[in-house]
Amino acid sequence: MCSVWRHRVINAFVNCLLMKKLKIAVRKWRMMRLFRKRDDSSLTRQTSIEPVPSTSGTPAHISRPPVDLLQLEPDEGQKLREQQLRQYAFFQLRIHLKRGQNLVAMDKNGTSDPYVKFKAAGRLLHKSKIVYRDLNPVWDECFTVPIEDPFQPVQLKVFDYDWGLQDDFMGSCQLDLTALELGRSQDLVLCLRDPNKPTQDMGEIVLNVTLYPKSQEDKEAKQIVQISKNI
């Protein structure tokens, strides 16, 4: 009988020790999470902004996304870019439409006559030239357009030109301006898709883009120039 009580007392003592160690471990884990959250928040607050070399008509205070942006979580990096975009009155988007790759054949002869339309918020920004009988067309066109709302993606649609008939749709894609680094030239490859043929490979569009932020003074000056042209 005494041995039974002795085992019970020992077991109870061991369980108390284990519970105490478990509580200590849980307390340490909570403290580590708390410090980690504080470090992350301080990293976001203390992020430095590097200046970008100014171009003609561009204010000297243009900022680029910080180097620490690469170390943040994807959602935090996106929020930081969106905060930067809201600091400017408007933007200029420079696009170098380079070429298309492996586009679909829409004509009976096994080729297409592709061209590209760029739109934003329903407004036509640019229409490329037609490259005849080529599934890997080289456009090599550069153009710059004003952007009022960078949160509206730029829509790209490729068509096959048909003389006297309705042009055939060859796929579309979109350019997310919020994912761009301000003032930095970036090479992109955008995959074309057809909503009616979700599994079909429609080819790719290769381009280089740069999004330049502009000040309120730049915007007013551009409006004055536009008004003078219309007079």
TrEMBL record:
Its cofactor is Ca(2+). It comes from the Eukaryota. Keywords: Calcium, Membrane, Metal-binding, Repeat, Transmembrane, Transmembrane helix. InterPro entries: C2_dom (IPR000008), C2_domain_sf (IPR035892). It is a multi-pass membrane protein. The keyword Membrane applies. This is C2 domain-containing protein. The lineage of its organism: Eukaryota, Metazoa, Ecdysozoa, Arthropoda, Hexapoda.
